[in-house]
Amino acid sequence: MDVKQLAAATGKHLAQGFLVGIGLMVAVLLVATVGQSIFTNAMTPKIDPASFLPDTKSITEKLIVSDVEEMKAGGQTYFVGLLTNKSDRIARGIHIEVDLFNKNKFVDQYSTYITGSLSAGESQHFKINCGCKGEQPAEHTSYKIRVTTSGF
């Protein structure tokens, strides 16, 4: 074999080796990528964020309003009452609303916030002012009180 033939054969073998190497590298990268994707999906925990949040509806049902009275004094109308936390958690961001009705028709709404927090078993008085000074709330025959909260 002469030098030209040897160089051609060597070049051919190098080219084949290079192509085989690239093919193997592509195959290894493909297997690694697919394997990593499968591993990541298998190892990623499936967590429902809502499972860490309290059921605020059931908790607000444990914020009990009692001893409510509608009072009128000095040209103003207001509601006073007692709020008791009968849940086992601290309540924060408590909002108390009073809806006024005239013969079962909604006519107005007023509200107040309880400042700070209310520990489990704790009670706190509240007062909801209706209307502005010198201005009476809408005429009403009944009312309903509702408690909401932004967090526990």
Q: What is the overall shape? A: rod-shaped
Derived structural class: alpha+beta
Give me the CATH fold name of the largest domain.
Immunoglobulin-like
Please give the CATH class of the largest domain. Answer: Mainly Beta
Main sheet makeup: 3 strands, antiparallel
- Tally the helices: what do you get? 2
Beta-strand proportion: 35-45%
The tally of beta strands, per DSSP, is: 6
Q: Give the overall pLDDT as a whole number.
A: 82
Radius of gyration: 37 Å
Number of domains: 2
Helical residue percent band: 25-40%
List the uncertain runs: none
Q: What oligomeric assembly is this protein in?
A: single chain
Order of helices and strands: HHEEEEEE
Query: What separation lies between the terminal Cα atoms?
Result: 89 Å
Strand order of the largest sheet: 1-2-5
CATH superfamily of the largest domain: Immunoglobulins
What would you note in describing this structure?
It is a single chain. The chain is α+β, with helices and mostly antiparallel strands and 152 residues long. The protein folds into 2 domains: 3-46; 56-151, Immunoglobulins (Immunoglobulin-like). The protein is built from 2 helices and 6 strands. It has helices at 3-43, 56-60; strands at 63-73, 76-85, 91-102, 105-118, 123-130, 142-151. Strand 1 and strand 2 form a beta hairpin. It starts with a helix and ends with a strand.
